[in-house]
Amino acid sequence: MEINIQPLVPEIIMAVLALLLLLLELFVRRKETVGLLCIASVTVAAYYMPQSFGKAFGGMFISDGYSVFFKFLFFINLILTVLLSIRYIVIERVNHGEYYALMMLSTLGMMIMASAGDLIVLYLGLELMALSTYILAGFIRHDIRSNEAALKYFLLGAFSSAILLYGITMIYGRTGTTGIALIGAALAEGTVDPVLLLSVTALLVALGFKIALAPFHMWAPDAYEGAPTSVTAFMSVGPKAAGFAALGRVFLTGFGPLTGEWSVILIVLSVLTMAVGNILAIQQQNIKRMLAYSSVAHAGYAVIGVIAAGAEGLSSMMNYLFIYALMNIGAFAVVITLRSEGFQGESLHDYKGLSRTHPVAAAVMLVFMFSLTGIPPTAGFIGKFYIFKAAVAAGYAWLAVVAVVFSVISAFFYLRVVMYMYMHEPEGEPLTLSLSPAIGLALLITTVMVLIVGIYPSPFLAFARIAAG
Amino acid sequence: MVELFFGYLAGAVVVLSLLVVFSRNAVHSVLWMLLMFLHMAGLYLLLNAEFLAATQVIVYAGAILVLFLFVIMLLNITEEMRLEQFTVGWPMGVSVSLGVLIAMLAALSGFRTDLKGPWSIEAVERTTHTKALGKVLYTEYMLPFEIASLVLLVAIVGAVYLAKKRLR
């Protein structure tokens, strides 16, 4: 049997370099070097990406525009979070090299999920991603909140994996295959029966857990609040985007013939998610918890792209996730700068009067909060605009209206941060920001990108549209 | 004859699973689970899957349950047994499980037995299960097999990190 590994080259490079990093970590005294090597490894993998198009292992692994777009998103996520981490994990006193290797392996799991053409590969990719993230969530071993976050994330994640496997066995029992494209072909002629509906529901619940759709979002606030802030930034973007990549492929290709059935469930989940995320975020006093609920709400918006289906719906969803990655990591970067030796900096009140003491940090936070709300000329507006446009084009105008209403509600808690920064006097001792060149670079990239995409979005939109096919 | 065996094994698995859940003493739970795993191995044998049956006994009944027992012995179970239940989810839990059960029963009609793949019962009997599984695992399912090895590696790295690094 001839094996064509060309499509897998970026994944193989990631795996090999992650393992090398794990070994090197033993000999390198300065762990910052490991972080920089991690970024270098990602660049090497990204370099080989354009030549990777094709299918391997009998269609089990598919490298197409769709997966490549998501893989670049994962790379951006990894590079930015590594930049955030370099100084932060020193402050938290967990400056160990395994941190970077685990982030790479988690990203590798996401890449496999985005490229999976078979449900078994999808499941294993998901486990690789999730297992690494559980460990990262509990990385600060001496902090009880980090332990709690890891344990909750692990238990609920394991539970959702079991549901995913249940769904896979049922679809296998019904169609006799686990290949996503083959499932689509098998369902094209058949009729809808209860076992299919049950399988669709199980897969929806399991992936819903991963992207934190309400009512499967219970783990998110606790896990996001307790995990190290850099890991929160990582896992609020990466695993969520990977879940969306899997959702798009499985439901549009595999369960395409059942669109009428699953889109009804997804619409209910989407509205519920936007409601729960936005309304519960209002009463949060901890900024990490607030951003956790906000990330739940953003999953609700992005799901509208999957409901709208077709190339336009998919590309609006991909575009939204790309913009969400930039603004969300940017916001977490500001949160991280407030954390310094002996000071948590996680309460909303810590932001009071930030514009007087640290005008640049406040201005940057302002951009991200505007973008998360969806105010032009920031990228968040463009993301929401194209999601809503796709929804209207697909005949779900009322859903777009509901989403706009919830966006308006979200302005309350995003702009409250801005109000605290600009309209309050500083309280207590003056803040010292823990800045480093790396985090400065991350802030620069995210701010500039959020503004560029907001003002001149066409190249990015075109990229997503070509990728969605 | 086969039906009789299947009926016994399936019934025993259901009853034993209930005993696992309802035992107040965690050690008893684990021992019921051991019995349940052995009955499941019997079910695999009925399906011509002797390799899976052996793995079930060696890995699950052998290795994993010993690990369970280890962990339980580290806890103070006499105290745990006296603890009041601290989650109040009984009615909710029962109704959800009943709902899932009804959905599963309704779904039974959808399963099909007429699907024909390359590995029919005769083909598996001819090559023997172990050989057939090995063939498929190392050719067709090579990629999942390799990914699984990475998953295990991450588990090891995580276990070593979380258990070994000194707390500071």
What's the layout of helices and strands?
The complex is a heterodimer of chains A (469) and B (168).
Chain A: H1 9-24, H2 31-47, E1 54-56, E2 61-63, H3 65-91, H4 98-115, H5 119-137, H6 144-175, H7 180-189, H8 194-210, H9 219-226, H10 229-254, H11 259-282, H12 287-308, H13 310-338, H14 354-357, H15 359-373, H16 379-393, H17 397-423, H18 437-455, H19 458-468
Antiparallel strand pairs in A: 1-2
Helix pairs in contact in A: 1-2, 1-4, 2-3, 3-4, 3-10, 3-13, 3-18, 3-19, 4-5, 4-10, 5-6, 5-10, 6-8, 6-9, 7-10, 8-10, 8-11, 9-10, 9-12, 10-12, 10-13, 11-12, 11-17, 12-13, 12-16, 12-17, 13-15, 13-16, 13-18, 13-19, 15-17, 15-18, 16-17, 16-18
Chain B: H1 2-22, H2 26-46, H3 50-74, H4 77-82, H5 90-107, H6 121-127, H7 129-138, H8 142-164
Q: Which chains share the greatest interface?
A: A-B, 45 and 31 residues
- Looking at the overall shape, the CATH architecture of chain B is Up-down Bundle
Order of helices and strands of chain A: HHEEHHHHHHHHHHHHHHHHH
Number of domains of chain B: 1
Helix content of chain A: over 70%
Rg result of chain A: 21 Å
The total count of helices of chain A amounts to 19
Oligomer: heterodimer
Overall form of chain B: globular
Uncertain runs of chain A: none
**What's the CATH H-level homologous superfamily of chain B?**
NADH-ubiquinone/plastoquinone oxidoreductase chain 6, subunit NuoJ
Number of strands of chain A: 2
Which fold name is given in CATH as the topology of chain B? Four Helix Bundle (Hemerythrin (Met), subunit A)
